[in-house]
Amino acid sequence: MENILVIGSSGQIGSELTLALRKVYGNNNVFATDIRESSKEITQSGPFHLLDVLDEKRLIHFVIRYKITQIYILAAVLSGNAEKLPLQAWDINMKSLLNILDLSREVGIKKVFWPSSIAVFGKTTPKVNTPQLTIMEPNTVYGISKLAGERWCEYYNYKYDMDIRSIRYPGLISYKTEAGGGTTDYAVEIFYDAIEKGSYDCFLKSDTKLPMMFMPDAIRGTVELMESEKSVLKIKSSYNLSGISFDPQQLSDEIKKFIPEFKISYNPDFRQSIADTWPQSIDDSNARTDWGWKSDYDLNKMTSIMLEEIKNKFETKI
Ligand code: SER
Description:
Layout: E1 4-7, H1 14-25, E2 30-34, H2 40-43, E3 48-50, H3 56-65, E4 70-73, H4 79-84, H5 86-107, E5 111-117, H6 141-159, E6 164-169, E7 171-173, H7 186-196, E8 199-202, E9 210-214, H8 215-227, E10 239-240, E11 244-246, H9 248-258, E12 263-266, H10 271-275, H11 285-291, H12 299-317
Parallel strand pairs: 1-2, 1-4, 2-3, 4-5, 5-6, 6-10, 7-9, 8-12
Antiparallel strand pairs: 9-11
Helix pairs in contact: 1-8, 5-6, 7-9, 7-12, 9-12
The structure holds serine.
């Protein structure tokens, strides 16, 4: 039997991944934790505890008490916010990972999942179909912490023969939990504003093409990676994963197919210079070959679901 600890169950990935894991492993075997309260869907469907990943003592007690066998560490400060408080962001992003890696080695945790990001790449990286193995010179705090994290994951995998798995997520788009402080978040905000105001003022330029992914693909990909046999997983750092690549103009054109009067304006802020260093599209052939990854959602399918679901959210609030 597996007992799974999710750290960061209130966040953008955690709020959906926790529910998906409960479906696979059983409601009572997935322990959701965060430093703030999670949604009712999570707190009422299985165990939820307030827990700080930086509190090493409580963490180890928790893991022993609940006989945890797998850990998902999803707590992180995203790219935009990390630029505002670089050292604090570095501390949180790195300490959370290192605490878990070392604790997992000590108590013999069977599997660990940790999210990396397209932010590991930098302006010297080839931008189109960015390969798994390539030049990596990130120049954001978030990117530097993710690249260092990948190196640590690989180090623990080889040095201690552990099973730590990771994905370099593209920008994630979801209607359930809003992201916070990311550079790709315009692609979530735009849907809320399209429905609420009929217009959106975008913080990136119209032709800033970035790799993105609809959350159901990201959740399925994560579960599939974690369910794969260890022997097929040749990448011991983090897998490239590709969904849909588009720029704000293309997304706006797609929204106009559903809301013809929708208007977009552009006012690039500091996040433009972050986006300018990231890839436009990702080559995920290693993930396809090793564990059979394939994305399901294209721009049209994602846009129609996002608009429909967010409209429902607003209607049920009224
Ligand atoms: N979505 C993240 C961000 O924009 C990238 O991993 O920070």
